[in-house]
Specification:
This protein is of the alpha/beta class and about 260 residues long. The chain has two domains: about 5-130, no CATH class; about 140-260, no CATH class. The protein contains five helices and 15 strands. It has helices spanning about 20-30, 90-95, 95-110, 150-160, 235-250, and strands spanning about 35-40, 45-55, 60-65, 70-75, 85, 115-120, 125-130, 140, 165-170, 180-185, 190-195, 200-205, 215-220, 230, 255-260. It has a four-stranded mixed β-sheet with strand order 1-2-5-7. A hairpin with a 5-residue loop joins strand 9 and strand 10. The radius of gyration is 21 Å and the shape is globular. The model is unreliable at about 1-10 and about 135-140 (pLDDT under 50).
Length: about 260
């Protein structure tokens, strides 16, 4: 199965399947699987805003085009199991043209992050109304009026996707054995958005250590009855800095500077 028609003009292609690219695509999907889209729909003016929720049961597949590999996200094709789209008007729910336009505009949303998505139309369920969801209380203050709306949106999307994660640390011993330690980090809800050198957007955390990055030690194996994760004390500053540097690298891969 080929999806040549959905490749961006500047698609990210590789000579071989790339593990870092797969992680990047999964991170973007995590951030964009729920959201809203302004659909090009002349019947309701220039556009019509709807909310959507893509189910987790997607397929990540490497495809080949002209000898180069690219990754595609494929939504579930089982009727109603791939995605739910919430509309406020009955006419929109039953409009086949609107359905087609929605898929095109959703694809363009992923295109902005250089991610290819193939939406199986049979799996999309258009419903009336939308679920009740609490308002997000997180505060992301924009401290520089030169930051563009597109940059703000990108920062918020990426921050949401990698707000928490797992970092593995490998220790190699002289006898050839390898010990793996796992650490979970959690970023705070509040942060600042600024513009750095070369117009690079920056994420700035508070200088208050009580509201900064939190690092937790995760004993291995996790299924051990004595398993208990615990917060790493600030006394282990070198360890916390090492984990923080890994988080900095994550933001850097999206061309965002992280200033903890």
């Amino acid at each position: 199965m080929k999806f040549i028609d959905i490749i961006n003009e500047e698609a990210r292609t590789f000579k071989h399947p790339n593990e870092d690219e797969e992680k990047r695509v999964k991170t973007i999907f995590k951030a964009l699987r729920k959201g809203s889209v302004n659909v090009n729909y002349p019947n309701y003016g220039d556009s019509y805003k709807v909310k959507y929720h893509i189910n987790d049961n997607v397929i990540y597949r490497w495809e080949v085009y002209s000898g180069m590999y690219y990754m595609v996200i494929i939504t579930n094709n089982f009727p109603g199991e791939g995605m739910t789209v919430y509309c406020k008007d009955k006419d929109v729910v039953n409009d086949t043209k609107f359905r087609s336009n929605f898929i095109v505009d959703l694809k363009q949303k992923f295109d902005k992050f250089d991610v290819n998505i193939y939406v199986n139309q049979k799996g999309v369920n258009f419903v009336l109304d939308e679920p009740d969801q609490p308002e997000e209380m997180n505060e992301q203050r924009v401290m520089d009026n030169q930051v563009t709306p597109e940059q703000v949106k990108k920062v918020r999307t990426v921050y949401k996707a990698i707000k928490t994660g797992i970092i593995n640390h490998k220790t190699h011993y002289n006898d050839g054995t390898v010990d793996i330690s796992k650490y979970k980090y959690v970023l705070p809800d509040d942060y600042l958005i600024m513009l750095g050198e070369e117009n690079t957007p920056c994420v700035v955390l508070t200088t208050n250590p009580e509201k900064g990055i939190k690092v937790y030690y995760l004993p291995v194996p996790k299924d051990d009855p004595s398993y208990r994760e615990h917060l790493v004390s600030t006394e282990y500053g070198a360890l916390i800095k090492w984990v923080t540097d890994k988080v900095v690298d994550k933001f850097k891969s999206f061309n965002i500077k992280f200033l903890p």
